[in-house]
Amino acid sequence: MSGRLTANRYGKHQVRVSKIRRPRRAPANQERHEFVEYAVDVELEGAFDVAFTAGDNRPVIATDTCKNTIYVLAKDHPLDTPESFGVAIVEHFMGRYEHVSRCVARLTETVWDRLNDSPHGFVARDRATPTARVELARGGQPVVNSGVEKVLIAKTTESGFVDFHRDDLRTLPDTDDRILATQLSATWTYAGEVADFAAAREAIVNALLGRFLDHYSRSVQETLYLMGQAALEACADMQEITLTMPNKHHLLANLAPFQRENANEVFVVTDEPFGYITGTVAR
Amino acid sequence: MSGRLTANRYGKHQVRVSKIRRPRRAPANQERHEFVEYAVDVELEGAFDVAFTAGDNRPVIATDTCKNTIYVLAKDHPLDTPESFGVAIVEHFMGRYEHVSRCVARLTETVWDRLNDSPHGFVARDRATPTARVELARGGQPVVNSGVEKVLIAKTTESGFVDFHRDDLRTLPDTDDRILATQLSATWTYAGEVADFAAAREAIVNALLGRFLDHYSRSVQETLYLMGQAALEACADMQEITLTMPNKHHLLANLAPFQRENANEVFVVTDEPFGYITGTVAR
Amino acid sequence: MSGRLTANRYGKHQVRVSKIRRPRRAPANQERHEFVEYAVDVELEGAFDVAFTAGDNRPVIATDTCKNTIYVLAKDHPLDTPESFGVAIVEHFMGRYEHVSRCVARLTETVWDRLNDSPHGFVARDRATPTARVELARGGQPVVNSGVEKVLIAKTTESGFVDFHRDDLRTLPDTDDRILATQLSATWTYAGEVADFAAAREAIVNALLGRFLDHYSRSVQETLYLMGQAALEACADMQEITLTMPNKHHLLANLAPFQRENANEVFVVTDEPFGYITGTVAR
Amino acid sequence: MSGRLTANRYGKHQVRVSKIRRPRRAPANQERHEFVEYAVDVELEGAFDVAFTAGDNRPVIATDTCKNTIYVLAKDHPLDTPESFGVAIVEHFMGRYEHVSRCVARLTETVWDRLNDSPHGFVARDRATPTARVELARGGQPVVNSGVEKVLIAKTTESGFVDFHRDDLRTLPDTDDRILATQLSATWTYAGEVADFAAAREAIVNALLGRFLDHYSRSVQETLYLMGQAALEACADMQEITLTMPNKHHLLANLAPFQRENANEVFVVTDEPFGYITGTVAR
Question: Is A8 in contact with D220 (CB distance < 8 Å)?
Fold first, then answer.
């Protein structure tokens, strides 16, 4: 039969694990817990071709074993940041299995914020979700990408869009006052060692949000670029950042048929179609 | 042809509207905006049978007109709470169309929290979503139900489950220490006029969260009941509250095969199947 | 503390089970399998108040036990239809636990169609999903509701909407030719014993689809009513049927600004807002 | 301020368009319609940097204009296949705008199958969704990727998994009889001109499904490879194919605690975590 296997990759996705951390041992219900939850994808490349081409499973680390591994590593690791746990995961697979040539771990955190300053009560956040991606190739160093997802932000003025390309397919008028709303996501890389991934993320997210607000936006594009610059300024270790800013449209409702003025007051909210803008800013 | 029409109802769903409120007029970019967003469902009952049985559309207020109406009402109304806007919607339809016998509005708020104390910058919250349902029947008064959805909370100790029914289909062991996590939702009714729906909701949610934490939970059932009582205590106007507390399971990972102890430390997080518990607590 | 428990209910949701049926025993890989998959919700009412009010779990059949039960019953039952399995579930819970006063089972089938006439190959269908709901109260008989969900159908002509209510909030023009598209769902009840739920469902769905096509539709309302009548005619055992037909809008694209005619040719497809129409037709 | 813009891209996503094709003109309701629906993403690269770095929007073709363009092109094009429409889209943007250096269109089809041989009645399919991706860089030729998504298939026997890597983290036992279920997706490229994309896709999908069934599967990996080979054999124009076959686990229910044998009969169906396997097969 014809057909060569030119690439392959496999692993386990959506391994969801939570952990109670007990920083200081204390009598039972006086312990002050920390509570973390990650969803982990792990993928392997290496000398697995025979499984595909010859039905020979001997090199295959079952995806079920990959899952077991995540739980065991979650026991042995402090789960302090998704980045550090991602590094532990890829180093485990590369260290233990010589025939694996590349391992990638992707992590998404469900952030549990402390509730009412309780020692053991938490409420989950669903915005500004931290993400990490760690890749390790045989002979190399772990490459860490950090990120944040699902940051739904808006400015209700100080945004316009004028003088864009005009031709016979354009119907959108110029406007010097509109709502700019976006579901921001970002990923970034670091130049060297990072002492504290959580502190870096916090500084970066704060810089992104602050810059989003601090200027009159002439386009999503301009604001994206300024936000990328702000992030680079806020984190000296950052090498480059990619921002994705889909336009979450709030369209001025047409109230003219109903004898109402609508001076940027009432808007129709739509999910699709949506404008998609992405850009990368580097040192 | 056989078959009588015994019930019918129609309307428009997922009418999503946002509004910029400008409490005090001020020079352009010094205005301090408020920003609100609702998704509205409206449904009508009444003398619409001929549309079904005779193809006679004359009584039918098009669902497109229902949509227009929401936008126009959003212009005329302050959109201060989903409850008050819901009342305005049902009163509009009942007041304008004599052949409508019943109108129901359901509203879900996307809460836009102020960002960095900016006068026009906002970040959307995706937890603890306010909801309202208002129903008005011909000759009656609007009946308001308030609610809250998507409150994902956990306590990492102070929860157990023992001595439940034992038979040959039970395999779950007793435990006096477990994670209790739930995605709380609640709806409640009021005994009379309510001065401030937003203040009532805040008091109720705070009471629910506080009670969730303040005791050793012997079951989701017990905690649900205590939370319902706390809500009744916190809001004198409330008549009854229905709580739904699906169990968001964090199951102790079995690390025994890997020679690791797991003293309530590492958990497998699953979405399904899930325990479902609901109850109503009334004065 | 104030607050009486006035209602409660609990159970397990999303218990997903599949089963290989081997109608005739045959040498290993010559068996002709059937493959079925259900997602089951089960809910119980009864003498459970003490769990809520006194933390007394002795009457509580753990939701984990409910889950075990579904798997065990799936072993003992042929899983020939969701209705018959639903009956078996509610009869099990009512028969075994005297303190349960009411049991409800809801089932959704993932239909696995045979693939290429293979004895053991299947492809899942994601449209026209069968559903069932069975309720049994102490002292009564099981009440079976059958249904079907996710039937996305359209007619590209033979549909119009004219002469509907006209006022200052109406902007939609009359049209005598439009696309009518809907995601049909239906539930129905039976007058007496039903010999073959699967045959009944097939006859009903065929009648619904046939009637959807066979006339010029003057409104979704009219078509819904005609479809309900057709279903009653097709299944003598049916007592009443409730149809829900949300409008999946295909809106004529406005190509006038681009010097193109659009004689019902190109449409903008939107998911929201959407018209919602429901009605019940009974003998 | 620091920070160089090193990459950018933008466009409109989820532009959903449907079209009625009337192959032969005929008196009104005797026309035999065809009905197609695509969701289109279009993205542009080019000389847009000044929009990011200088707030200069003059080169920016508004995403709203991109949306208009899709509707206009849908009028002018037969919409016979997602591939051919994708080619028309990228050629339009590259032909009209000299400052665009690269255009990518991604299309997903909602297949409307004819219902009851009606000339204008259709039912939407939600499995085996056709996809296409077309990319055109300045100076090059359109590069077409075809694909198919959401093909949920299972074999209830003729599948095993034995002799895979054994270590202290493995707990999964060998099995020579299991359910193999997967949600197949595939994308492929062509070596040259393709006369009929729809015929090619049909041949490829049939080959994939046929091969899925025709052998005893020693692993997902082996079956994936054999399926890729079958696709190459079935379509002479195909250059390479990438298959993704996530494992949709049906896990043998443990009925031992309930004194029931479970000889591959009853299974627990889970969505996560799930095994992920992907591979590329080329000539």
Answer: no
- Judged by CB atoms closer than 8 Å, whether chains meet at D16 and A272 is answered as yes
Q: Is the pLDDT of residue B133 over 70?
A: yes
Which residues, numbered 166 to 185 in chain A, qualify as contacts with chain C under a Cβ-Cβ cut-off of 8 Å?
168-169, 171
Instruction: Compute the residue count for chain A.
Output: 283
Which of the listed CATH numbers 3.10.580.10, 3.10.270.10, 3.30.470.20, 3.30.413.10 matches domain A10-137?
3.10.270.10
Tell me if B155 and A112 make a contact (CB, 8 A cut-off): no
Question: Does C228 contact chain B (CB < 8 Å)?
Answer: yes
* Band of residue B30 on the pLDDT scale cut at 50, 70, 90: confident
**With 70 as the cut, is the pLDDT of residue D25 above it?**
no
Distance CA C223, CA C205 (A): 15
**Pair C221, C125: CB distance under 8 Å:** no
Strands B274-282 and C4-21: antiparallel
Tell me how far apart the alpha carbons of residues D41 and D134 are, in angstroms, rounded to a whole number: 11
Residue C238 has pLDDT above 90, yes or no: yes
pLDDT of residue B31 exceeding 90: no
Output the average pLDDT for chain C. 96
Question: Pick from A71, A153, A258: which is nearest to B266 by CB?
Answer: A71
d(CA A108, CA A38): 6
DSSP state of D117: T
Residues of D serving a catalytic function are: 12, 63, 249
User: pLDDT tens for residues C29-69?
Assistant: 678 999 999 999 999 999 999 999 999 999 999 999 999 99
Predicted confidence at residue D209, as pLDDT, reads 97
Identified catalytic residue from B19, B33, B63, B189: B63
Would the annotation count C220 as a binding residue? Answer: yes
pLDDT in tens, A5-59: 999 999 999 999 999 998 766 666 678 999 999 999 999 999 999 999 999 999 9
Select the residue of D33, D213, D267 nearest C116 (Cβ to Cβ).
Answer: D213
The yes-or-no answer on residue B63 being catalytic is yes
Answer whether residue D77 shows pLDDT above 80. yes
Q: Are B174 and C60 in contact (CB under 8 A)?
A: no
On whether the CB atoms of residues D153 and C121 are closer than 8 A, the answer is yes
Instruction: State the CATH class of domain A150-282.
Output: alpha beta
CATH topology for the B10-141 domain: Urate Oxidase (3.10.270)
Does C27 reach chain B within 8 Å, measured CB to CB? no
Q: Is A77 on the interface with B (CB under 8 A)?
A: no
Distance of CA C102 to the CA centre of its chain: 21
For residue D9, give both structure tokens.
Answer: 């891209």
Is A12's CB within 8 Å of D276's CB? yes
β-sheet bridge partners, residue A250: A269
Question: Residue range B186-210: average pLDDT?
Answer: 95
Q: Say whether pLDDT at C24 is over 90.
A: no
Kindly indicate the confidence band of residue C97, based on its pLDDT and cuts at 50, 70 and 90: very high
**What are the sequence ranges of the domains in chain D?**
10-141, 150-282
User: C13–B272: do the CB atoms touch at under 8 Å?
Assistant: yes
Q: Are D227 and D209 in contact (CB under 8 A)?
A: no
For the question of an ipTM over 0.90, the answer is yes
Q: Chain D contact for B64, CB < 8 A?
A: no
Tell if the CB–CB gap between D169 and A14 is shorter than 8 Å. no
C63 as an active site residue: the answer is: yes
pLDDT at residue A73, as a whole number: 98
What is the band of B70 on the pLDDT scale with cuts at 50, 70, 90? Answer: very high
Q: Does A163 touch chain D (CB under 8 A)?
A: yes
The span from the first CA to the last CA of chain D, in angstroms, equals: 50
Assessment of whether the complete model's pTM goes beyond 0.80:
yes
CA of D171 to nearest chain B CA: how many angstroms apart?
Answer: 8
Amino acid identity at C188: W
Catalytic site residue from A19, A77, A120, A249: A249
Cβ of residue C46 closer than 8 Å to a chain B Cβ? no
C64 assigned to a ligand binding site: yes
